[in-house]
Each structure stands twice: as structure tokens, then as C-alpha cells.
Amino acid sequence: MSLLKRLNEKSLTTENNKVDANKATPVHQKSNRQEPSIYEKLHQYVMEELNENSEITDDQLEEAIPSIAEGFFETEGERLTFEAKQQLVDRVIDELTGYGPITTLLKDKDVSEIMVNGPKQIYVEKKGQIVQSPMQFRDDDHVLQVIEKIVSPLGRRIDESSPMVDARLEDGSRVNAIIPPLSLVGPSITIRKFPESRLNIDDLIRFGTLSEQMAKFLDGCVKARLNVFISGGTGSGKTTLLNVLSNFIQLDERIVTIEDAAELQLGQDHVVSLETRPPNIEGKGEVTIRDLVKNSLRMRPDRVIIGEVRSAEALDMLQAMNTGHDGSLATGHANTPRDMIARLETMVLMAGIDLPLRAIRDQIAGAVDLIIQQSRLKDGSRKITHVTEVIGMEGDTIVLQDIFVFKQTSMGADGKIQGEFVSTGIRPYCAEKLERYGIHLPSEWFEGEG
Predict the structure, then answer these.
(1) Which residues are CB-contacts of 2 (< 8 A; sequence separation ≥ 6)?
(2) pTM higher than 0.90, yes or no?
(3) Is residue 291 within a helix (H) or strand (E), and if so which, with residue range?
(4) How many angstroms separate the CA atoms of 73 and 71, rounded?
(5) Where is the chain membrane-spanning (predicted)?
(6) Which of 23, 98, 210, 382 is the least crowded, having the fewest Cβ atoms under 10 Å away?
(7) Spatial distance between the Cα atoms of 360 and 343, rounded to a whole number of angstroms
(8) Which residues partner with 388 through β-bridges?
(9) How far is CA 293 from CA 149, 220, 262, 281, 320, in A?
């Protein structure tokens, strides 16, 4: 359905509700309705003009609204300055062609995340710091309208029977929405913005996320088809790093990506992107990440990339890695590489198959080659704190070995964390495999701190 049609339907619904409300209110009762603001009058005027002019297409809306508004200001805007008129027009444009008050925040290149906590509270992350925005929605219904505008084109829904939804914007930005009765503060939206230009490894080096040596090592690990797991907390930059590492994959390989809400932006041509599907209103038709992992193995992939492993699909992923589908990439939530191993054990158990713990650990040790720990530090910076190799089993324990670590040295006067990336001085166990792919690791990389 086009934007104009949705606007028309919304307008008709609103008018019908007004009529019903008038019928239900006795004439002798005093109305508590407030006089509409100048913005509300302009918004209603523009809506009526658009409804009458069906020739205006969705693409022409942004250009048409200022012209329509001129007619309104001829009678209603005598006392308004040019700047005030422009602000009102911009608000109407944001409302009808964008996402209301958060449209400006979405256009702000410095904003990386937007958090709407009900209609009157909006926070943003700017350059690693979370600050409150002066922007506000009118009320709960206003927030719900924006959520609906985001999810309906994707064939998803949000209502009392399904009060949570994951979605994405046209640019790939990740969206999560949750509404009452689950959210006690009103409808809430969280948007993880996608950068306009795809980041590369040089950008991460410049940001201080990792060192040049670490970047070259990870490049070699991906090219040598090691199975790599990216571990980290929420907002630590796991998906960004996954995107960057995927750039190291050869152009002639067939890649299958699996995500809850598609947001990976791969530069290769031979890519098949798969996305989960929530159940319909009858509770049927759900397609989970586990379903997609199983199906992807029948699609002759050279690489399988899983946006986030969080449940029983871990078992299918490990089995795929252990049966010839090497070079896979995935992310998961954990605070340390050791915690990531423990989480994988737990997720495999969620598959409902009664496997001995030793067998699960054998699967993990045989499947996962490298764990990259990504962290968001107190100053808002994001750094790779550990590059850890999975060596194998020793007794009933999975043996891990740190290759590179980030060591904090001090806290600067500006609150920024100071530190350095150092080698542990241990030559990687995987060096032999990298050599078979023609990738040589200089010995000076692994001479330790000394």
C-alpha cells in the first residue's frame, strides 16, 4: 500500500472517530477539547489537500507540501516569521514522509542509536555517549503510528497479542519495538542506525578498535577459512565487525547470511540473504533461525554467516562447521571468550537433545577456531579486547589461548581510556593452516610485550 493510501485511510479513521465522539457527547455538556494548535491546523489542511489531489505521488510529497502550506499561511500565518513557518512545514514533512520527531535524529550522522522511552522521552547515542534529545512525540498513539509505519511494509505487525517486533528501515538500520502492556512507560522504540557508507578495516584501525597487526591476522584467518565467533555485549559493535570481516571473503565464494532482521551489508555479488519470519495472527507460519540454518546447508554455501546465535540453532551451526562448512562467521552475546564457550554449551542444550556435556564440548572445540571479544568501554569507545584461539580439549575442559589482548593503562583527563593492543607472545596454533593458504605470520608479531 502506498504512503498516500495509508494517509487517506488514517485520515478517514480519525474523522469517523471524531464523529462518533460527537454523537456520544450530550450537547449540554461542556467540551474539554482544546483549540487545535497552529501545527495541528496545518497538518489537517495539508492532509485534506492531499486527499483531494490524487495525482501527487509518494515521491512528490516532500516537494508538494511546502506549496500546499503556502495556501494555509495566507489565512492563518500572518503573525508567523519565515523561520517559524519553515519549522512548521518541516514538522509536517517529517510526519508525512518520515517518522515524526525522530526523522531529524535519523538524518543526524553523529547519532548512532535512538531510544524512545514512551512519547515524552527520547535518548540518543552520539559519539559513544548517551544524551537526552529535546524531541518528543505527542502521545502514545503518535508513537504507535510511527511503529506501524515502520513494520507494516515488512509484513510484520504489533498489537496486544504480539506486543514485540523486530524490523529494519530501508537503509538497513535495526529496529525493535515493544508496546504496553509489556512496556510500562508506553510504546518504546530502539533504532540501531546503519552508517551511510560501509565501514572497512582501515576505519576500525583509525577508530582504535584494533591494531594493524590484529587486522592483518584476522584478514588471514578469514581467508584461511577459520570458523570465527564474535562475542560481545549489546551495542559493543559485533555486527559492524562482522560486516568488516566479511569483506575479507573472496568474491568468487557463495555466501548465505541468516538474520532475525536483515542488516548485514556484504560487498560480494554472490550473496543470499535469509531472514526469519514471526508467526501470523493465528500463531502459525513462524520461521526461526534454526530453520534457516538447516535450510542453508542445502543451498551449497561456501560460507554461512549468522547474524546472532542465541538459541538451539547453535547445535546445527556447530554440526555444519564440523562437517565441511568451514569459514563460517557468527556473533553471540557474552562478556568474555570463556563465557562465550559456556553460552554455546547452554544453547546446544536448548535444542532438546540429550547430549553428554563432554560430547557438546568436543563439538565446540572441533568447530570454533577463533573467538573475537568486542567490548564497549566506559568512555563509549569500542575495542577488541581479546583475540582468542580455541586449541582443543584437555580432559573435560576446552583450552583457550589469547593471541592479542587490549591492556588499559590509564584514564585520560578527558575521560578517555588509554591503553594498547599487545601480543601475548604465543604463536597461534592456526599458523600452520594459514601457511597452507599462503598466508605468512611474521614472527615479530608474537614477541610479546617486551
Answers:
(1) 57, 58
(2) no
(3) helix 289-296
(4) 6
(5) none
(6) 23
(7) 12
(8) 371, 402
(9) 30, 26, 15, 25, 9
Distances in Å between the Cα of 114 and the Cα atoms of 117, 125, 190, 196 are 10, 7, 6, 16
What topology is assigned to 201-445 in CATH? Rossmann fold (3.40.50)
Instruction: Tell me whether domains 107-195 and 201-445 share a fold.
Output: no
pLDDT in tens, the chain (450 residues): 454 454 445 444 444 444 344 444 343 334 444 556 888 888 888 888 878 777 777 677 778 888 888 878 888 777 788 888 888 888 888 888 889 999 999 999 899 999 999 999 999 999 888 999 999 998 999 999 999 999 988 888 898 888 999 888 888 888 999 999 999 999 999 999 877 778 899 999 999 999 999 999 999 999 999 999 999 998 899 999 999 999 999 999 999 999 987 888 888 999 999 999 888 878 788 899 999 999 999 999 999 999 999 999 999 999 988 888 899 999 999 999 999 999 999 999 999 888 999 999 999 999 999 999 999 998 889 999 999 999 999 999 999 999 999 999 988 888 889 999 999 999 999 999 999 999 999 988 887 664
Q: Does domain 107-195 have CATH number 3.30.450.370?
A: yes
